[in-house]
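Working notes for the structural subgroup meeting. M.R. asked for a predicted model of this chain before we commit to crystallization trials. I am recording the input and output together here so anyone reviewing the notebook later can reproduce the run.

Input as submitted:
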Amino acid sequence: MPPAQPHHSSVIAVFCGARPGTTPEHTGLARKFGAALGRRGLGMVYGAGGVGVMGAAAEAALANGAAVTGVIPQDLHERERAQQAPGEIFVVRSMHQRKALMYRLSGSFAVLPGGLGTMDELMEVATWNQLGVHEKPVVLLNASGYFTPLLAFFDHMVAEGFLSADERRLVHAVSDVEDALDLLAPDSRVLDTKQPLAGSAL
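Returned structure, recorded in token form:
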């Protein structure tokens, strides 16, 4: 059985890279997001990588009181250093099981900088919203402009007739961590905005 989590609607699945990227802004943003998530009393589900943007977000979330669950396939357990990953780690047999469990455990999806795996997860959960498989907020955290070219491509899809304007609005994009959490978990509240967040320095 998966580890216990807060109520479904207060758990956010975080999609992001197991690499740090070429600028410290990416891991800094991840730490800030994870810390703010924890301070709001939310739970986090992620891909159980102990490195890169993924590891930074989970570490900060756990340090600030979040219930953190990682889900990883057996064949990635060593590659992504799951033994160093923060939180309770649930090992599954395949990538399909990993994604299915993450989707089931969470009530919304935050997308931070990452590579092909992150794009795969983003496109799948957005498509599930489009098809009515689920109705869960999807928010890109675009603080550094990393997703700006992707957002422009979404607009191009609308212009070319492959995506409706309503479907385009299924994927939100914001630059501020607190704005992202307001969209992802509208009922959450910051416990103490004056107290520094552990691991939140950019």
